[in-house]
User: Which sequence fits this backbone?
């Protein structure tokens, strides 16, 4: 069974640009959540989607948004990038009560 | 608000020895889930062990076990017979529901000496 796939693995963007990250969950998993990991703030929850609906949202500005498609694949978008948005973005999927399975992340660098 | 604290930024253990990583949390809820995740340099977060708060029995997965003290709000991870492949960042995490969002501690970097 394929794991959680995140693309791209690495990304370099310029301040002010926007970026879209993609996450393909494990087949059959309907819940997808996103986390931002930085050395200073650690791992912080961004949002969670279940059956195409945002079910939970963390404390991030409106520049961070996401969506989920009917096949459970999810995208997150960051508009008007700032230097502080440089981070590892992790996606995780879940179906059962056992918790989340994470992908390898997308390393975003804003210059 | 729920918080998770890992007081040991770095730990070191000799190969084949036992090491315990500490984690405390704060919550007013009675039913919740606790997790230990491992993050090697490959970046992928790997679930090590999971504990449901309503279960008294401590969870065990092969060489990994936890000491769950609900009243003290403590959830430590014991790694027995440490192996070189155990070297990684270890994160303690809390979730209100088994599929709710995870609240992570800052992590403990574990080094294993041959």
Assistant:
């Amino acid at each position: 069974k394929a794991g959680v796939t995140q693309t791209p693995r690495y990304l370099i963007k310029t301040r002010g640009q926007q970026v879209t990250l993609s996450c393909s969950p494990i087949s059959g998993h309907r819940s997808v959540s996103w986390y931002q990991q930085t050395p200073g703030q650690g791992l912080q929850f961004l949002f969670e989607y279940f059956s195409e609906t945002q079910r939970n949202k963390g404390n991030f500005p409106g520049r961070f948004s996401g969506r989920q498609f009917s096949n459970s694949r999810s995208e997150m978008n960051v508009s008007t990038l700032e230097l502080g948005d440089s981070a590892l973005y992790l996606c995780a999927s879940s179906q059962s009560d056992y918790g989340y399975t994470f992908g390898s992340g997308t390393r975003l660098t804003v210059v | 608000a729920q918080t998770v604290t890992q007081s040991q930024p770095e730990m070191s253990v000799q190969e084949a020895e036992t090491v315990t990583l500490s984690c405390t949390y704060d919550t007013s809820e009675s039913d919740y889930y606790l997790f230990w995740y491992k993050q090697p340099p490959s970046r992928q977060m790997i679930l090590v062990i999971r504990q449901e708060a309503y279960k008294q029995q401590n969870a065990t997965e092969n060489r990994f076990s936890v000491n769950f003290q609900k009243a003290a709000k403590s959830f430590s991870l014991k790694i027995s017979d440490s192996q070189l492949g155990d070297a990684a960042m270890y994160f303690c995490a809390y979730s209100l529901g088994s599929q709710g969002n995870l609240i992570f501690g800052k992590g403990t970097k574990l080094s294993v000496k041959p």
The mean pLDDT of chain A is 94. Residues 35 and 45 of chain A are 5 Å apart (CA to CA). Chain A touches chain B through 23 residues (CB under 8 Å).
